[in-house]
Task: inverse folding
């Protein structure tokens, strides 16, 4: 009986010690806030700057910005040891000054390569996203359904020296609009922010240079491509290509 009690005591002691070790070795968990800022080749843009024709794109078109909102999703933190993929999405709405968010998931401290998806991948785009429905962000069924990736709207001075509206709307590239649309290629894309040291609750600034949507590698002529871009698969692919140069890492605080 004494041997049994001694053995039981040893087991309890080992379990207690292991429990202490697990607590002691538990890694600190932190939250990351993403703050999206916007500029035109370095000049800060907020909703205060909207509705005035004051920007000149690379093609020489004078234009205004009246609305800008877009979706980011699937944030990934990775290094040589592990990867954390946050299966989330968020609508960045500059018009309503809704430009930051903090994912509910925390991650262990460390140095990570951080990336996210501009828009929604095809799996996410096929889901019923209630909050995006309420924002009238849907794409019509005859264009494949799902959601916009971005809505950038404003006016420009056309070749007749008159104000004209433009709707630079990014969606999944679609051909053959109607009951059986087809998709020539994916037009969501990955944005790699590079390595970030995350050793405390941190705020990561992500800068969007709006001018780049009209610049590189495709020079954008608003007189030719200004509206009805959603059913234009070629235009969507040009947007996808120009979008590769739009985002960069800003300050990390």
Result:
């Amino acid at each position: 009986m004494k041997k049994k009690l001694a053995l039981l005591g040893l087991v309890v002691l080992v379990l207690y010690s292991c429990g202490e070790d697990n607590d002691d070795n538990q890694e600190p968990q932190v939250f990351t806030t993403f703050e999206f800022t916007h500029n035109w080749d370095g000049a800060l843009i907020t909703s205060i700057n909207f509705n005035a024709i004051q920007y000149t794109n690379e093609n020489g078109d004078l234009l205004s910005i009246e609305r800008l909102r877009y979706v980011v999703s699937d944030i990934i933190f990775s290094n040589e040891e592990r990867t954390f993929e946050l299966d989330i999405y968020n609508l960045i709405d500059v018009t309503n000054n809704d430009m930051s968010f903090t994912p509910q998931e925390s991650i262990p401290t460390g140095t990570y390569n951080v990336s996210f998806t501009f828009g929604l991948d095809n799996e996410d785009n096929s889901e019923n996203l209630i909050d995006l429905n309420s924002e009238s962000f849907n794409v019509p069924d005859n264009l494949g359904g799902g959601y916009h990736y971005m809505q950038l709207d404003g006016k420009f001075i056309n070749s007749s020296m008159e104000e004209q509206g433009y709707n630079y709307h990014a969606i999944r590239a679609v051909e053959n609009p109607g009951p059986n649309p087809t998709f020539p290629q994916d037009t969501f894309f990955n944005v790699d922010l590079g390595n970030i040291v995350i050793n405390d609750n941190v705020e990561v600034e992500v800068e969007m240079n709006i001018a780049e949507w009209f610049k590189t590698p495709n020079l954008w002529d608003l007189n030719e491509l200004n509206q009805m871009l959603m059913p234009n698969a070629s235009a969507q692919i040009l947007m996808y290509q120009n979008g590769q140069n739009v985002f960069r890492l800003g300050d990390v605080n």
Notes: Residues 1-24 have pLDDT under 50 and may be disordered. The two ends are 62 Å apart (CA to CA). The longest strand covers residues 67-78. The first helix runs from residue 2 to 24.
